[in-house]
Task: inverse folding
């Protein structure tokens, strides 16, 4: 390849880069008081790369990334006090992979996985004191499998399974001291058969018969 061709290719490459940069521009939006509200890069396809959003006092609100005007990459949001509110991962406009959410104190609120924007696998939520609040599994965005719910003191409140988002099978419900209170079976989200109530001493008696 002679020097003339090399120079021509270099010029063509530089022109392409220049046109690409020229098509991109920084976009800013401001509050009425003049404080910056949002800032990011746009091109002819929409939002591109990192975008930042701010509260009226100038503190960061949200940091997110775009590709062809669709959320793509890590997205972080913050409370007005500066504490992290959420940490998500996006791909082509849909939530993907791990995500975590927090109280404004910084305590973890809930965490789990997404697949194509839907809940997937085990999700756990927590009380503000850090105690486990609930634990259960999802399938295709719906509760599916064993679920447990706990009090702020760590006492089990209820335990049972879901199938395609509806209660299914044997469930137990407990009082504030963790003693069993009610039990019975579900089918497709509805109570079936005999349901039982338990005394404080654990004595079992028929509460309701759904077969009648």
Result:
């Amino acid at each position: 390849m002679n020097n003339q061709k090399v120079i021509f290719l270099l010029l063509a490459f530089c022109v392409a880069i220049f046109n690409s940069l020229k098509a991109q521009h920084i976009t800013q939006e401001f509050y009425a008081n003049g404080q910056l509200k949002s800032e990011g890069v746009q091109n002819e396809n929409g939002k591109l790369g990192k975008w930042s959003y701010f509260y009226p006092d100038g503190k960061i609100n949200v940091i997110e990334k775009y590709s062809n005007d669709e959320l793509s990459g890590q997205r972080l949001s913050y409370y007005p006090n500066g504490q992290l509110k959420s940490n998500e991962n996006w791909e082509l406009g849909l939530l993907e992979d791990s995500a975590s959410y927090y109280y404004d104190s910084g305590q973890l609120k809930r965490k789990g996985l997404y697949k194509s924007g839907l809940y997937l696998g085990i999700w756990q939520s927590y009380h503000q004191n850090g105690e486990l609040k609930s634990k259960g599994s999802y399938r295709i965005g719906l509760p599916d499998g064993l679920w447990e719910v706990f009090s702020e003191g760590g006492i089990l409140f209820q335990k049972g399974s879901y199938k395609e988002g509806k209660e299914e099978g044997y469930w137990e419900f407990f009082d504030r001291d963790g003693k069993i209170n009610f039990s019975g079976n579900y089918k497709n989200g509805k109570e079936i058969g005999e349901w039982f109530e338990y005394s404080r001493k654990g004595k079992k008696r028929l509460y309701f018969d759904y077969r009648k």
Summary: The helical segments are 3-23. The first strand starts at residue 25 and ends at 30. The chain has two domains: 1-106, 130-212. DSSP finds one helix and 18 strands in the chain.
